[in-house]
Automatic annotation (TrEMBL):
GO MF: hydrolase activity
Full protein name: Glycoside hydrolase family 88 protein
Pfam families named among the record's database cross-references: Glyco_hydro_88
InterPro entries per UniProt: 6-hairpin_glycosidase_sf, 6hp_glycosidase-like_sf, Glyco_hydro_88, PolySaccharide_Degr_Enz
Taxonomic source organism: Flagellimonas chongwuensis
Spans through the membrane: none
Length: 369
């Protein structure tokens, strides 16, 4: 006798699985990216985590610009390049106020990308001048958390997204090895300090070492997303045969393998990477950075498509489901330094930037030209 209940249940599960593993179409990726980019530009001066909008040169917006410049290269018109150029011009192409602080270097990534496109020295010179000063007056501070002037060096993992790619781009543009050498020394010092070899993940900073959250080591999703995306952005500026590239590739491969193991069944990564049972809420900024890194790794041949492709597909489909009809990306964890909360109707500019970075590589992965 045929059990209709079992057949019905099987059909439901089959339909559910088919919808979740929907084939990604490059034109749909592009359309969603456009919607997110346009919504974010329209709401650029809104308040998000705090009751005031972020300064245009703040790291939050810097992460947005990193993604937006990738989208600008894909768009059919110069609207997005014009928007980015206007921001640079209004701020005289200067970095934010703090000379040494990595957060205030983030905007240099989009400045130097625009320099590559327009070859206008005013887009390059202020960043180059400031980094020359840093090189010749290097911070001698400790990497220990809350030691005097500690954030003059990269002693929190977010910093590895903010500043090192700017040094790598400066090296690529000028072909002056001093920028690469400085970046390598500082990156290695941070990695030696914050990277957990057993878990293949980075502590956010020293204050989280030795602490447990519901019995698990505390590895913040977005913090590791910052690092993972930063590695891709650095390697994109280096020769694949170089020893420097191979150093970053080694870390990248370890992190990728770990991320594959700890992806949630829903496709995202939990805010506390090793404690997903206690953090079931989706979080889209860390997930977007991970998707960007994984898709970039496949596109460059570092990662095997058959192994990592399903994880990218599942995560991208999840991310798209959190974009509302107007183009706002939801479930972006507010500014913080540790696992926390996120909501479907809350966003942040860095979340949109991470999503646009992810989309730029997913688009290529699925055949976009």
């Amino acid at each position: 006798m045929i059990n209709l209940k079992n057949i019905t249940l099987g059909c439901v599960l089959l339909i559910s699985n088919l919808s979740f593993s929907q084939k990604i179409k490059p034109e749909e990726v592009k359309a969603t990216m456009r919607k997110v980019a346009d919504w974010q530009i329209d709401h650029y001066r809104d308040a998000y985590t705090y009751d005031k909008p972020h300064h245009p040169l703040n790291w939050t917006n810097g992460a947005l610009y990193v993604g937006m410049v990738k989208w600008a290269a894909m768009a059919e018109n110069d609207k997005y390049y014009v928007w980015l150029k206007t921001i640079g011009e209004l701020n005289d192409w200067k970095l934010n106020d703090r000379i040494y602080h990595a957060d205030d270097h983030t905007v240099g990534q989009f400045y130097l990308e625009l320099y590559k496109k327009y070859n206008d020295k005013k887009m390059l010179d202020p960043t180059k001048e400031q980094f020359d000063f840093i090189m010749f007056h290097p911070a001698k501070t400790s990497l220990n958390w809350r030691s005097p002037y500690h954030q003059s060096r990269w002693n929190w993992c977010d910093a590895l997204f903010m500043s090192p790619p700017v040094w790598a781009k400066l090296y690529n543009i000028t072909e002056e090895r001093k920028y690469l050498d400085f970046m390598m020394d500082e990156f290695k010092a941070t990695t030696d300090f914050l990277f957990d070899e057993k878990e293949s993940l980075y502590y956010r900073d020293e204050s989280y070492m030795g602490k447990l959250d519901n019995g698990a080591k505390i590895f913040w999703s977005r913090g590791n997303g910052w690092v993972f995306a930063g590695l891709a952005n650095i390697m994109g500026e280096l020769e694949p045969e170089s020893s420097e590239y191979l150093y970053f590739k080694g870390i990248f491969e370890k992190m990728a393998a770990k991320l594959l193991k700890i992806q949630t069944p829903d496709g995202h990564w939990a805010m506390s990477l090793l404690a997903q049972k206690f953090y079931p809420t989706p979080e889209t900024s860390g997930t977007s950075f991970n998707v960007y890194g994984l898709a970039w790794g496949i596109n460059t041949g570092i990662l095997d498509k058959e192994t990592y492709g399903p994880a990218v597909e599942k995560a991208w489909n999840a991310l798209v489901s959190y974009v509302n009809e107007e183009g706002m990306l939801g479930y972006v964890q507010p500014i913080g330094a540790a696992p926390g909360k996120a909501w479907p109707d809350k966003t942040e500019v860095y979340g949109a930037g991470a999503f646009l970075s992810a989309g730029s590589e997913v688009y290529k992965l699925y055949g976009g030209k």
